[in-house]
Amino acid sequence: RWNCSSLETKNKIPHTSSFLRTGYKETAFSYAIASAGVTHQVALACSLGKIDACPCQRPKKSHLTASERRKYAEARRGPSSMEESLEIFHHSGCSHDINFGLQFSTQFLDSRETAHDFMATARLHNNRAGRLVEHSEGQLFEVGAREAKLRGRRSSVLRDIA
Predict the structure, then answer these.
(1) Phi-psi sector, 69: left (phi>0), alpha (psi -120 to 50), beta
(2) Is 131 within 8 Å of 39 (Cβ atoms)?
(3) Per 3-state DSSP, what percentage of the chain is helix, strand, and coil (rounded to 5)?
(4) Which residues partner with 149 through β-bridges?
(5) Which end of the chain is least crowded, N or C, by CB within 10 Å?
(6) Which helix (H) or strand (E) holds 22?
(7) Predicted confidence (pLDDT) per residue in 96-137, tens digit
């Protein structure tokens, strides 16, 4: 059985835990869910214009009305609802850039691993599995706005994956 308290690490980096260096199925799940989480959060941050390096840049403020600028500024601090978040996507032309999230996650999580032994190969596999689940669970959404329908792509919610 998996004892979650075995992951408790006060003032330590969780990935240095001896638990995560063993070949348990729970370890595999931990790596996969971490990879899916990084992918999801980076894609979301990109869509909100919080990452300058991602392909979907935030709109130029000169093209927005005063109320749109105010809504955009509020969204940069964090949308209070999904509908508000989607309204910002409409103004910015952004949907979750899952490909940017996948690329970042690969570089961030896999860069230190080399497939020189079984455990390293397994960690790389589990990272890829998490990214694959996040990518395949992304879903099309449609929300009826006041004057127009908004269509786009959003990545999955981690609670659905777990």
Answers:
(1) alpha
(2) yes
(3) 60, 5, 35
(4) 144
(5) N
(6) none
(7) 678 888 999 999 988 877 778 888 888 899 999 988 887 776
User: Cβ of 143: how many Cβ atoms within 10 Å?
Assistant: 16
Three-state DSSP state, 87: helix
User: What one-letter code names the amino acid at 131?
Assistant: R
Residues 69-95 pLDDT 10s: 676 666 566 555 555 555 555 545 566
In a domain, 8, yes or no: no
Contact residues for 156 (Cβ-Cβ < 8 A; gap 6+): 36, 40, 133, 134, 137, 138, 139
Tally Cβ neighbours within 10 Å of residue 26: 15
> Which residue type is seen at 58?
R
Determine, yes or no, domain membership for 9.
no
Kindly state the DSSP code that residue 93 receives in the 8-state scheme: T
Q: Could you list the residue range(s) of the whole structural domain that residue 86 is in?
A: 23-161
Residue 18 in any domain: the answer is: no
134: part of which helix (H) or strand (E)?
A: helix 118-137
How many domains does one find in the chain? 1
Please name the residues in contact with 2: beta carbons below 8 A apart, sequence gap of 6 or more. Answer: 24, 26
4 lies in some domain: no
- The burial of 88, by beta-carbon neighbours within 10 Å (0-12 exposed, 13-18 middle, 19 or more buried), is given as buried
